[in-house]
Amino acid sequence: MSDALVVTNEGRSMKLTRRDLLAWSAGAAAGLIVTPIPWKILDDTSIWSQNWPWIPQPARVPVEIIQSHCTLCPKGCGLRVRMAAGWAVGVAGMKTHPISHGALCPLGFGAHQLNWHPQRLREVRHRGNPSSWTEAHAAFAKAKSEGPVVIIDGYPGRGASSVFEGFAEANHGLYRVVLGAESRALTPYEQWTGAPALSLGYDLENTQTIISFGAPLLDGWGTPGYVTRLWAEKSAGADDPQLRIIQIEPSLSRTAARAWKWMPIREGSESALASGLARVLLEQNLVAAHGPVPPIALSEAAARSGLSEDAIRDLARVLVERQPTVAIAANENPSVAALSVILGSVGVRGGIVRREKIERAYFSANPVIPDARAVLIDSSVPWDFVPQTGAEIFRFAAWNGGLTNADWLLPAPGFLEELTDVPTAPALPVETYAVAPALAKPTYEVQSAAQFLAGTDSNLASTEKIIHQRCAELFRNRSGTLHGQESIAIAKIESVQKLEERLWKGAVWVGEAPPPASLRCELKEWPSETTPAHTTGWTNSWDVPVLPPLASKLYIESSLREAPERRNA
Amino acid sequence: MRIGRNAIAFAVGVLVALVLGWVIFPRVLYVKKNQPVEFLHKTHAEKSGVADCSECHTIRDDGTFAGLPPMEKCAACHADKIGDSKAEAILVNNYIKPGHETPWLVYSEQPANVWFSHAIHVKRANLACSECHSTYGESDQVRPYELNRISGYSRDIWGHSMSRLRRAPHEGMKMSDCEDCHKKHGVDVGCLGCHE
Amino acid sequence: MSARYGMVIDLDRCTGCGSCMIACASENNVPSLPQSTARTGLTPLLVRKVSNGEKGERQREVFFPIMCAHCEHDTPCVKVCPQQAVEVDKATGIVMQMPQRCLGCRYCMTACPYHARYFNWWDPAWPKGMEKSLNPGVAVRMRGVVEKCNLCHARLHTAQEKAAAAGKREIDPADYVPACVEACPTGAIRFGNLADSNDPVSKEARSPNAFRLLAKLGTEPKLYYKSQEAWVRALAESNPARNSEVQHG
Amino acid sequence: MASSALTDARWIARDAERTSLSHFLMWLAPWAVLLAVGIYAAFLCLYYGLNQTNMDNRFAFGLWIFLDLGIIALGAGAFFTGFLVYILKREELKPILNTAVVVGFICYSGAVSILMIDVGQPLRAWFTFWHPNTHSMLTEVTFCISCYLLVLSLEYIPILLRNRQLRRLPSFLVFEHQLHKLVPVLAAVGTLLSFFHQGSLGGLYGVLRGRPFAFRTGFLIWPSTFFLFILSAIASGPSFLMLITATVEKVTGRKLVPEDVFRRLGYISGLLLALYIAAKSIDTLVWLNYTSRSVGFAPWQFYSHKPFGTPILFIEIVLLGLLPASLLILKATAQRRWILLTAAAMACGGVLLNRFVLTVQTLALPTLPFDDFLQYVPSWQEVASFGGVIAYGVILYSLSYRYLPLFPTPKQGASHVSGH
Predict the structure, then answer these.
(1) Please, which residues 46-105 of chain B have a Cβ atom closer than 8 Å to chain C?
(2) From the list C137, C150, C165, which residue is nearest B192 (CB)?
(3) Which residues of chain B does A4 touch, with a Cβ-Cβ cutoff of 8 Å?
(4) Cβ contact (<8 Å) for B150 and A35?
(5) Which of A489, A522, A482, A525 is nearest to A505 (CA)?
(6) Stretch (H or E) spanning C225
(7) What is this structure's pTM?
(8) Picking from A208-222, A551-565, B108-122, B181-195, which range would have the lowest pLDDT averaged per residue?
(9) Contact: B120, C89; criterion CB under 8 Å
(10) Residue D175: inside a domain, yes or no?
(11) Residue B172: left (phi > 0), alpha (psi -120 to 50), or beta?
(12) Is residue A44 included in any domain, yes or no?
């Protein structure tokens, strides 16, 4: 009762009571339900969560597909680049490419993102401090006026390479090359055949047995698509394949896991086993050759490799079962090369052949450079090449590979950012030539080493000029065929312009291989054993110092591959 | 008496809420923006005799839709001022002469996750542009672009009526509107038929 | 006509190079985040290394590309999603995942026996400028939603649009090839219409060496594998292994 | 006035004696801290996303699913007591009715809030209501739980309105009176809803064809776990209520409900537990010999991963099932209060273990031939938000106990609806 009284009193008074407030808010709440406020907010916030402003979305622009070539390493695989608004938004392999057959290495598929890699070199740096191109030019001009310049090239045979050579000749400098593992494996033949390593290759199309001493044949060796295609068509899954791949390797690598036969041996015993095999072949007259006989007893070869003597004998027999048989080393290994010679597979169809008639061999670079005023390192040189010299070092690179002793770090064009030509890939049996035009807008103020040199020396031909000369040469020689959307013999092409048109659209010229017999080989004595430099699995097919961000899918977001150990870092 | 007082308070509450929701809220939710140039479809249809939408809003050979015509298209006629309207001056001086694209505000802009193919709707289903874009093609004045502050969408997606009950034919471009039309034409494309 | 897109993966041809994984991620604008690990990363296509557990010379390894198997019958993820963010497309048989509808409850992930569904634990992000390299056809997903293989659906869109522009109803099969299929250097991954008995892929799917993982669950996956090696085929039926030789991808 | 600033006496029912405010606040303080930490953890999860948790692509459900299933099972006491009192007219259980409602409300609101933290896109959670997939157990769960939470709130309000101060508002008095008439109806509705979502929570894992360890066949669309969950929930619910009440009696040092209520609850709990264990055993046998093999999996290999060996099966069925059941039923043991309570605790433990096995172990087990067994340790954020929910429960219950008539006070009769 008392309650009621209180309330009526309040009722007369006009002052708001707690009760009025409660009634009011109850009404407001009830009213709100029939307004758009709660519902629209519910809807719009959910839409907002579908389009968070901080999440980047690709622009709606038409996509254009352009055929070109990968220039990140000397393999030069054919590319299908998806371009949108002047940027590469995706890469795939060029199906019509006569060598790579539409294949790329896993890293190639992420290459279009490399130009924005956090480790991209964005500015000229001098001993760690920001500098400018003018200062770099001045410093280089001064250096070359004071003494000889050594130029290191990691990708010989390009137009840029001949700019380097031209400069070296004109300025009493030296031109040196750093070869990839595949080419290094061919160098032993140089002194036995007189043909430069870079003119040699394996005629794998016609090979029946490959004995690989740790070469990652199915994991980025040579031009990936070339070998893997052969393997897939002739070998994969078959119990008695047309192409037998025997992998000699301490651990079960990708190649070993997929090879026809895998023989685990002790670390570093490749040479011993190769010599041992050669000895068995010679002693049991399994081969035509009669010498030289390797100075190693079968027992020793067995002891060092960890295989039984019988296993080695059986292996020797297998090697001659299906010939031609080539022995391929992971790196420079004279014993393995000599085994190929004993097997009689040099200068024969399906063996080691000569693809072009060039006589001059390149001098491969020695890190120790005693008397030079300046060393210029092209961006194609692997980051692990660290010159030991007192000279001033000009290091071109698109990406920063970590620690370096270079005085100058000079930002080079990145992926698809400059016009370059694509010479024959290492270890191929035929000559090829292609062109990779500049597709993407240069992301930063960059200069290639060739541009840089041309800038210092006005009467030096530019890369572009040389490429045009080469096209003209190709047209004059009238040999070989051009593989584009359709294949056409050079002889059938009307003009240089037409030829260039096709090349700029991604066509590949393939030369006619000289007869195998043109390569003569003479092995006087069994080569002394050398311990080859260790090659690191998949990354040896990839010479740029950084990996595309998406590579993390392979070795961080999955355990498909081992993380490559960072060089110098 | 006691009840009465409560009822009044309650009613006041309801009223306040209604005003807030139906009158004030829409004004707060949407922010009005003006087009960079006062472009009139009607004028172009009449003066320059552009008869068909596709003359400017083309579909490329690969089926992709070019959307709004690029600046060159305008420049073809408006390289120099035609007449001396204010809009004309803005177009020529601010965009065509310096060669900037005109930053049009697209009323029917859909978010990134929506995939809409004009080719399929126009060429295969033979829908008239007005089916979705209403009579905008004949508009003789530009209306401001209204941006939803929360969702960032154009108001045209929801439609003008807040309740969505009294909205004009061909108004509204929410997913439900697409679905209704698909149902009407017996088309079933699934989620990814329209989403990226 | 209603297609039933599926794949046959020839494990004998797979060298485990991983090209498909990167091509997939690149096509679908999948980010590579420094924080991601093998547990939390986004790999709509994941190649897993499996060993036969033997030692020495007799040791063998095979690589299993694992992706959404697009189960045809009683599809586990479709059944469990509370708000229809997953559905089997009638026209193509593709199991579709709608990130914009997804509320991130992850029930579908617990339902999927192949662990082929992935959660966006972080907001996607790219190094400065790299967003320019994103594929225009595919919308980037946001944090807090599930994603998986949609069989490169953006490419189907492009093909459909092209067909429509040419006034055709059916797409040209050559216009619709998923990124992984396109990328495989050895042609191990084959893509085709299982409903069409003349399609080489559906023929292969019926070959004696073809098998499916966990087919015994009765969900009719449309992802087939094939191998000449018996121990590999045996995996299809075997119970989960406990030995640690088995590598976990 | 000055005195009222220091004390909250005018808010406490006249006939209930409660400890001093300061003493009460001291009791709340630690829980408040725990709650604060929990809220911070929840904020981290919502703001930065679920990378704050330690879940991953294969362990996509973590601690929270176990927590949700667990507390919702224990919260079943609410609807079940309501069901017993209003539908089965078991008047003698009336004294614990209010406490049952509050506990239920706490469990369910806690579960829902945890759920909202643990989905990736809470802003879109309402899509489930707008675009429901009627085949999904989770849809059923979402609908039933949110509806039942509403029901619980409606049941909670009248208790709330019986607070001494609030009752002074006549209109509320009327409102409360009306609502109170509704309560039996609400109880009925609640029972129905609860039956369904308890069941669908079981179905949640039971339907997972892709997870042979959890997959069950069943009746119509419902796998056997659907029914097992209902049974186990109503079995553990009363035990949990008993534990709560006993704890409150211990903490406050007051006798709150007549002893026979305990024994009654224990007896019901015991009977249902026995029934559940029987059903569970049959289900397990069927699964071992039929279901698991039907999808081509040898059932025993699921138990071959330490620490989830066969002992876990024994503990779940015998040690924390059969044993407490008999202890609760048998007069000799049920007489002794400490045995009764221990048995109740074991019963709850058994049901919790069941939820754990079904959720966590299922995810840890491999499915692909080359999968391996997974480990998962929750991050502190997960644990903290868990703790936060518990703290929230304790605090809300303490407040309710202090200011609302949860238990009949000695002077009061059984019926005390409105007025005074």
Answers:
(1) 59-64
(2) C150
(3) 2
(4) no
(5) A482
(6) strand C223-226
(7) 0.92
(8) A551-565
(9) no
(10) yes
(11) left
(12) yes
Nearest residue, CB atoms, A20 vs list B9, B26, B64: B9
For residue D36 the two structure tokens come to: 């604060």
Q: Domain limits at A34?
A: 2-50
CB pair distance less than 8 Å for D124 and A46: yes
D404-420 pLDDT tens trace: 888 876 554 443 333 33
Do B196 and C137 touch, CB atoms closer than 8 A?
yes
**At A120, is the secondary structure helix, strand, or coil?**
strand
Closest CA to A371 of A385, A387, A391, A386: A391
Interface test with C, best of D55, D61, D119, D121 (most C CBs within 10 A): D121
Query: What amino acid occupies position C173?
Result: P
Domain enclosing residue D330, as ranges: 12-403
Among chain A residues, the shortest Cα distance to D122 is held by A46
Q: How many domains does chain A have?
A: 1
User: Chains with 3 or more CB pairs closer than 8 angstroms to B?
Assistant: A, C, D
Q: Does D168 touch chain A if contact means CB atoms closer than 8 Å?
A: yes
Tell me the pLDDT band of B73, cut-offs 50, 70 and 90.
confident
Phi, psi for B42 (deg, rounded to 5) = -55, -55
What is the domain count for chain D?
A: 1
Q: Does a structural domain hold residue A15?
A: yes
pLDDT-derived band at A541 (thresholds 50, 70, 90) equals low
Of B18, B67, B151, the CB nearest to A47: B151
d(CA D375, CA D361): 10
Q: What is the distance, to the nearest Å, from the Cα of residue A243 to the centroid of all Cα atoms in its chain? A: 25
Scanning the structure block, which residue is given the tokens 């409602």?
A: D101
Residues in D 72-131 with any Cβ partner in C closer than 8 A: 119-122, 124-125, 127-128, 130-131
Residues 82-111 of C with CB under 8 A from D: 82-85, 101-107, 109-111
Q: b or e along B135-164 (b: 16 or more beta carbons within 10 Å of the residue's beta carbon)?
A: ebbeeeeeeebbbbeebebbbbbbbeebeb
What tens digit of pLDDT does each residue of A385-438 get? Answer: 889 988 999 999 999 988 788 999 999 999 999 999 999 999 999 999 999 999
For residue B28, pLDDT over 60 is answered with yes
Which of C115, C120, C25, C103 lies closest to C64 in space, CA to CA?
Answer: C115
Neighbors of chain D by Cβ distance (3+ pairs < 8 Å): A, B, C
Chain B: give the shortest CA distance to residue C112, in Å: 20
Q: Which residue has the tokens 């840029």?
A: A160
The nearest alpha carbon in chain A to D120 belongs to A49
What is the CATH number for D306?
A: 1.20.1630.10
What's at A492, amino acid-wise?
K
Query: What is the CATH number that goes with domain C5-235?
Result: 3.30.70.20
In a domain, A12, yes or no: yes
C-alpha span between B76 and B69 (Å, rounded)? 11
* pLDDT of C243: 43
- CB–CB contact A116 C128 (8 Å): yes
